[in-house]
Amino acid sequence: MDQNEKRVPHYNLEKIKKLIEEKKYCITKIAQDNARIDFDLTVAEVIKYILTLDNTCFYKSMTSIYDNKIWQDVYHLSISKDTAYIKLQIISENSVIIQFKRK
To answer: Class of the 5-102 domain?
Structure first.
């Protein structure tokens, strides 16, 4: 499957944040593990960091390697001396899937 990329966000970041604040999100198990192992972060701390994202943190949009119709927005965020690689996508217009790992 072809993976597409673009340099503009596919999703509105403010909408993502609103959904997260409404507790309409899911953090993948691997993201939880990576956040803990790579940054010693809890799920609550991951959410706090994601809510600090702004458009200057945006890196790219890309389609899923499993389905080229599903877009994921990638953000980079400095945490201590490392950079987090954060992927966000809206599913069914009412929830956010979060992936989080060291870049």
So the answer is: alpha beta
